[in-house]
């Protein structure tokens, strides 16, 4: 898919207003594993509806642990989490929380549309509605002509689009993405970054949490960047990216972009 200008409904704001409700609230959260390793410690973070927040930091700093805590896949050793107005497990079971992994994790024996319909099937949604919703999100990610293809027939970028479509099919209020573009080549990566902003821009209430090792990616995508320290993981700084949307490829060549990249890199070094 060629690069195109993003048209989003987020184009008139810098950051969600102070009146926006808080969807993610972490208070003095700590996670200690049975072997005694402190994965994260004293993490305090509030994320409002409609934000796009990226987490950057060295390997092993607890970025993925925070995601597992938010989704209720693991429990904190201390502290309090409130996700989508309730506890993490309730948020996960509500169907309003979706997760995209670094690997597409598609079922190899199922075609594209069956992979995308899976979350709706697990929720007991009628088959005709499953198909309608799957076709809607496949068009959104540019794969409407590939619904009968098997994963092995797709490129890495196309597999990731399927994974993103599967996460969007439930109309999530909170979308968590754990290094989804890390294994892709740079051209495909930048194309999917732009397409992700376009998708996010169509739903001003959708909140995205995004883990990446790539500072340039974080600055391009985000309203805020949470910079984490090495183990035990803490949030060293929460950096605003006060650049309006839409953002096209030219944003990467601006002085504002370079200044924010420098600030994030500086926080990482400290």
From TrEMBL:
The ABC transporter domain, residue ranges: 24-255
PROSITE patterns xrefs: ABC_TRANSPORTER_1, ABC_TRANSPORTER_2
Pfam families: ABC_tran
Domain of life: Bacteria
Keyword Ligase part of the UniProt annotation: no
CDD domains: ABC_NrtD_SsuB_transporters
Keywords per UniProt: ATP-binding, Nucleotide-binding, Translocase, Transport
Name by which UniProt lists this protein: ABC transporter ATP-binding protein
Source organism per UniProt: Metabacillus fastidiosus
């Amino acid at each position: 898919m060629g690069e195109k200008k993003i048209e989003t409904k987020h184009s008139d704001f810098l950051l969600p207003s102070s009146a926006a409700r808080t969807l993610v609230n972490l208070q003095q959260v700590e996670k200690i594993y049975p072997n005694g390793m402190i994965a994260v410690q004293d993490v305090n973070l509030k994320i409002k509806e409609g934000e796009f927040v990226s987490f950057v930091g060295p390997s092993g700093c607890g970025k993925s642990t925070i995601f597992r805590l938010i989704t209720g896949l693991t429990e904190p050793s201390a502290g309090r989490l409130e996700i989508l107005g309730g506890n993490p497990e309730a948020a996960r079971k509500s169907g309003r929380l979706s997760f995209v992994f670094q690997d597409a994790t598609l079922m190899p024996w199922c075609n594209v549309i069956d992979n995308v319909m899976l979350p709706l099937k697990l929720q007991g949604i009628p088959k005709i509605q499953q198909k309608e919703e799957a076709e809607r999100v496949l068009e959104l990610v540019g794969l409407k002509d590939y619904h009968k293809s098997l994963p092995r027939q797709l490129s890495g970028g196309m597999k990731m689009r399927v994974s993103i479509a599967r996460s969007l099919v439930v109309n999530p209020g909170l979308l968590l993405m754990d290094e989804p573009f890390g294994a892709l080549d740079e051209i495909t990566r930048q194309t999917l970054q732009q397409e992700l902003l376009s998708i996010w821009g169509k739903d001003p209430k959708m909140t995205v949490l995004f883990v990446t090792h790539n500072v340039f990616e974080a600055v391009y995508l985000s309203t805020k960047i949470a910079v984490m320290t090495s183990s035990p993981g803490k949030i060293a700084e929460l950096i605003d990216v006060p650049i309006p949307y839409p953002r096209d490829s030219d944003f990467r060549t601006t002085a504002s972009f370079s200044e924010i990249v420098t600030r994030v890199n500086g926080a990482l070094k400290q």
